[in-house]
Amino acid sequence: MSGDGNRLAHGFEALNPAEEATLSPAQRFLQVELELNVHLKQLTFSEPVRYIYKPLEYAWETHRCYVEKYCRGGQSILFLGMNPGPFGMAQTGVPFGEIKSVVDWLEITGEVSRPPDEHPKRRITGLSCTRSEVSGARFWGFFKKLCDEPARFFQHCFVHNLCPLIFMSASGKNLTPPELPVAERKSLLAHCDTALCQAVKALGISMVIGVGRVAEQQARRALSAAGIDVRVEGIMHPSPRNPQANKGWEEVVRAKLEELGVLSLLTRA
């Protein structure tokens, strides 16, 4: 994929059905993301948004490493986050991409450049980032304990974010898509919803698990509107801003995954 990946990373080129049929699951997934990038470039955002980071551009190399390594096909479960965090995917190009988990457990490599317009308090240092993102550390740390090796987790599951952009105010405050002006949020999510539906169909996903209520509800709306018969469930978001998550997130999520019939897939010897 590396030749095609480098070519496509700098300018999306639509493929005809015959060409698409020859792509691997990872290539199909990356193609969906690159097409989404093209559509999102056409959008503009007003206050309170001042900075927009696009890790699927400046961290494309590490993101592609993640997808090519772990998007294998035959994975029935898609864990879906909402959008990148400032010390997770914004730095690494990997969903919930807390540095230690990305480097030491997922063993992702590659160069990360920088967005053209950076907030002075939110510099991108890539895989050299020294700050840990709590949400990502909890998310991947839980599955490391559960599965031991990444191969067991990714045999059945893949992890993705609905929206690949991170938004910040003039102060550097992280802004989630629900905090955007209504018309701008609707335009953004319309494109992201379409890409999600394309990814779910391309990978043959049968269950989407939203990480957090917002991602769960958005996935349910998008897939239902598109007439895609996929089960949509949700788990608690691991954010430290969620008081419940700070009281034992792992126990809550383990119980939920057992209820959904997912836990046995990840712990079976």
Mean pLDDT: 92
Topology as a string of helices (H) and strands (E): HHHEHHEHHHHEEEHEHEHH
Which descriptor suits the 3D outline? Answer: globular
Low-confidence stretches: 1-12
CATH architectural designation: 3-Layer(aba) Sandwich
Beta-strand proportion:
5-15%
Please compute the radius of gyration using only Cα atoms: 17 Å
Q: Tell me the number of structural domains.
A: 1
Number of strands: 7
Structural class: alpha/beta
Task: Count every helix, treating DSSP H or I runs of 4 or more residues as helices.
Answer: 13
**What is the helix content?**
40-55%
What is the CATH third-level topology name?
Uracil-DNA Glycosylase, subunit E
What is the highest CATH level, the class?
Alpha Beta
The end-to-end span amounts to: 32 Å
Q: What strand line-up does the widest sheet have?
A: 3-2-6-7
By CATH, the superfamily comes out as Uracil-DNA glycosylase-like domain
Notes on the structure:
This is Single-strand selective monofunctional uracil DNA glycosylase. One of its GO terms (biological process) is base-excision repair. Pfam families: UDG. One of its GO terms (molecular function) is oxidized pyrimidine nucleobase lesion DNA N-glycosylase activity. It is found in: Nucleus. With 269 residues, the protein is an alpha/beta fold. It has a single domain, classed as 3-Layer(aba) Sandwich (Uracil-DNA Glycosylase, subunit E). The chain has 13 helices and seven strands. The chain has helices at residues 2-9, 17-21, 25-40, 55-58, 60-70, 89-92, 99-105, 134-147, 150-156, 182-203, 213-225, 249-260, 263-267; strands spanning 51-53, 77-81, 157-161, 166-168, 174-175, 207-211, 231-235. The chain has a four-stranded parallel β-sheet. Strands 1-4-5 form a three-stranded antiparallel β-sheet, with no helix packed on it. Helix 10 crosses helix 11. The relative contact order is 0.15. Residues 1-12 have low confidence and may be disordered.
